[in-house]
Specification:
The protein is α/β, with parallel strands linked by helices and 386 residues long. It has 15 helices and 11 strands. Helix content is 46%, strand content 14%. α5 links the parallel β5 and β6. The protein is globular. It starts with 7 loop residues before the first strand and ends with a helix. 47% of the residues are buried.
Length: 386
């Protein structure tokens, strides 16, 4: 491979997206300048020894001290906490920051990376959901590209490159596997246990995002994300259940054409494109054999049972801090469910109730959003966690 791609920093390098990003980096011989993890110092140490980054971050302070002792024989500097994440996100040599870190903790590092004029390979959904308006404005002001890693948004990004002007677009079609409870009605979900909700039929993902897939909240958040990333209204986004997970998303143009991106279910494909765009290179992923694919099916989602999907549409229409409210309430409710403190259906009721009780604030800043998120989490715990 003759072309050399610029160095990257990987936030969340020990998670699913992070480890697959390092597989792609290994495949393309891309230099890694910074890595970060929450607590998994065993894997982070291995990554440090293989990729020799300038710095690495363990968010947990005690674990960071232990890691520092373990890798004292290397040249990698060890940092901790939010300050460390910002150092990783703004590392001088990196041209692109892969935001594979989960949760709102990724918001400030992403904003600071953009201010430092780093391109963003975006896998941190919460950043765009909660602060998409701010993030997109910062990106425009700093001449920064935001390239989505999430398979659906990456597919839309690819499809949009095939049309000349945005005015030619009629709508975006997000595909959805339907999760483990496809076809179930609300009464059938009353006694769902965490292990059942974590059993995603297609993707191997983290615990939180697996639950979001089971409730279809993940797709609701993707609607909000798509509106910000592509500058469209929620009325121009359609969701279709596509159990085979072969078509990763589509667009419909004004003339009635539908353009789709198809591939095997392998996150290394969108990750690689985000790191090499506009180049397309041989990928470590398997090829899609159309002669062996099952029939492709599409159905409308059951928005009555999976009510968080229309709730997210309502949140993006309300604007301001409304997406922050639903995101924070959902994150905390999912945590409580995984701890067996609330039921599966309580997740739906919690998010809906919290949004209905909140006064929506239109003039938002990152500080206000972080304050809102903290308050909503505390409220959910006070009302549902006891």
């Amino acid at each position: 491979m003759s072309k050399k791609y610029p160095p990257i920093s990987v936030l969340g390098s020990t998670g699913s997206i992070g480890t697959q990003t390092l597989e792609v980096a290994r495949h393309l011989n891309i230099k890694i300048t910074a890595l970060s993890a929450n607590k998994n110092i065993d894997l982070l140490e291995k990554q440090i020894r293989e990729f020799s980054p300038y710095l690495a971050v363990c968010v947990d302070n005690e674990k960071a001290l232990e890691l520092k002792k373990r890798v004292a024989d290397t040249a990698t500097k060890i940092y901790s906490g939010e300050e460390g994440l910002i150092k990783a996100a703004t590392e001088t040599e990196a041209e692109t920051v892969v935001t594979a870190i989960s949760g709102m903790v990724g918001l400030l590092p992403t904003a600071e990376a953009i201010k430092a004029k780093k391109n963003i390979a975006l896998a941190n959904k919460e950043t765009m959901v909660v602060a998409g308006e701010i993030i997109m404005r910062l990106a425009k002001e700093n001449g920064v590209k935001i390239l989505p890693i999430d398979s659906e948004h990456n597919a839309i990004f690819q499809c949009l490159s095939a049309i000349n002007e945005k005015k030619d677009l009629k709508k975006i079609i997000l595909t959805c596997s339907g999760g483990p409870f496809f076809g179930k009605k609300r009464k059938e979900l009353q006694n769902v246990k965490p292990d059942e909700a974590l059993a995603h039929p297609t993707w191997k993902m983290g615990r939180k995002i697996s639950i979001d897939s089971a409730t279809l909240m993940n797709k609701g958040l993707e609607i909000i994300e798509a509106c910000h990333l592509f500058g469209i209204n929620s009325d121009d986004v359609e969701v279709l259940i596509h159990r085979e997970s072969i078509v990763h998303s589509m667009i419909e143009t004004k003339d009635g054409s539908i353009l789709a991106q198809l591939a095997v279910s392998d996150m290394r494909i969108p990750i690689q494109l985000a790191l090499t765009y506009p180049d397309r290179l041989p990928s470590p992923a398997k090829r899609l054999d159309l002669t062996k694919t099952p029939p492709l099916t599409f159905q409308n989602p059951d928005e009555e049972t999976f009510s968080l999907l229309p709730l997210c549409k309502r949140a993006i229409k309300l604007g301001g801090n409304a997406p922050c409210v639903v995101n924070a309430a959902n994150e905390e409710a999912v945590k409580l469910f995984l701890e067996n403190k609330i039921s599966f259906l309580d997740i739906f009721d919690c998010v809906e109730n919290i949004l209905s009780e909140e006064k929506i604030e239109k003039n938002i800043s990152i500080d206000k959003l972080l304050s809102c998120e903290k308050r909503i989490r505390e409220k959910v715990n006070a009302e549902y966690g006891s």
